[in-house]
């Protein structure tokens, strides 16, 4: 990957990711009963760390070699450096794989490869990626949710829209996780899912639609009009402010 993500970027991401992870795991783990987890595009491994805190000790976090190993949220042996634009094969399968708000950072040509790496490792996948107009640092591949739905469908994975309704009003969860996250599963992954999750499967050609309310959709429309360079710069400035505040609060504790 050509873009290098700084510690400031991860300082910004981590605070919201930790809150969001705790809420999503509390909602989804009772349905999934995962005992092992793979996280592609993990950053420092905050999500994987929260899965471990919930009792899922067998985790593997995967991201670029630029991640600072001294600031990992998981043990070093639970982190693997890899280029997600290339095929990934860890030689095993996990109860659950996830990739959350990562696909937009990869070239469009690598989209199918990301999905292929996920399905190679699990029958169930939690997935989210930025939609057009969402904006963020180096978002070069914002796509409608149905774009990813089609890529998973090509591998026999159906979309279960069970996460977004459960998190819709959870303000502690970052909007992109609330509005974009979908569970995908193949036939083996469907086995054992509870009726309330199975009832949320999209069938008969139904397409995933953009989530969120009027204010979120207005944001998407406005940001879509801005040049990508300007969006990245705005995102970097905002991330810097939030990261500095987070570090200041941490020093006061």
Structural description of this entry:
The chain is of the alpha/beta class. It has one domain: 3-Layer(aba) Sandwich (Rossmann fold), CATH 3.40.50.150. It contains 10 helices and 7 strands. It has helices at residues 7-32, 46-53, 111-121, 145-153, 163-167, 175-180, 187-190, 195-198, 214-223, 228-252, and strands at 36-40, 58-63, 79-81, 96-100, 124-128, 158-160, 182-185. The protein has a 7-stranded mixed sheet, sandwiched between helices. Helix 2 links the parallel strand 1 and strand 2 (58-63). Helix 1 (7-32) runs parallel beside helix 2 (46-53) and helix 1 (7-32) crosses helix 10 (228-252). The radius of gyration is 17 Å and the shape is globular. The relative contact order is 0.14. The mean pLDDT is 89. This is Class I SAM-dependent methyltransferase. It comes from Sulfitobacter sabulilitoris. It holds the Pfam family Methyltransf_23.
Key structural traits:
Rossmann fold; single chain; about 45% helix; seven-stranded mixed beta sheet; about 250 residues; globular; 7 strands; alpha/beta; about 10% strand
Show the helix and strand layout.
Layout: H1 7-32, E1 36-40, H2 46-53, E2 58-63, E3 79-81, E4 96-100, H3 111-121, E5 124-128, H4 145-153, E6 158-160, H5 163-167, H6 175-180, E7 182-185, H7 187-190, H8 195-198, H9 214-223, H10 228-252
Parallel strand pairs: 1-2, 1-4, 2-3, 4-5
Antiparallel strand pairs: 5-7, 6-7
């Amino acid at each position: 990957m050509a873009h290098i993500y700084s510690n400031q970027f991860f300082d910004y991401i981590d605070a919201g990711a930790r809150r969001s992870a705790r809420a999503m795991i509390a909602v989804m783990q009772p349905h999934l009963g995962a005992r092992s987890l793979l996280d592609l595009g993990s950053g420092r491994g905050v999500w994987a760390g929260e899965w471990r805190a919930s009792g899922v000790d067998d985790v593997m976090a995967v991201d670029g070699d630029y991640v600072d190993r001294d600031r990992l949220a998981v043990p070093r042996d639970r982190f693997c450096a890899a280029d997600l634009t290339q095929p990934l094969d860890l030689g095993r399968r996990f109860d659950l794989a996830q990739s959350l708000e990562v696909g937009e950072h990869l070239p469009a040509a690598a989209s199918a490869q990301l999905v292929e790496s996920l399905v190679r490792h699990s029958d169930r996948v939690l997935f989210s990626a930025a939609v057009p107009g969402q904006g963020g640092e180096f978002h070069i591949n914002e796509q409608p949710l149905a774009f990813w739905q089609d890529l998973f469908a090509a591998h026999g994975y159906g979309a279960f829209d069970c996460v977004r309704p459960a998190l819709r009003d959870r303000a502690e969860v970052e909007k992109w996780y609330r509005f974009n996250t979908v569970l995908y599963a193949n036939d083996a992954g469907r086995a054992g899912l509870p009726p309330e999750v199975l009832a949320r499967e999209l069938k008969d050609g139904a397409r995933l639609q953009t989530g969120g309310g009027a204010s979120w959709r207005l944001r998407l429309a406005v940001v879509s009009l801005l040049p990508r360079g300007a969006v990245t710069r705005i995102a970097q400035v905002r991330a810097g402010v939030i990261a500095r505040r987070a570090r200041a609060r941490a020093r006061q504790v």
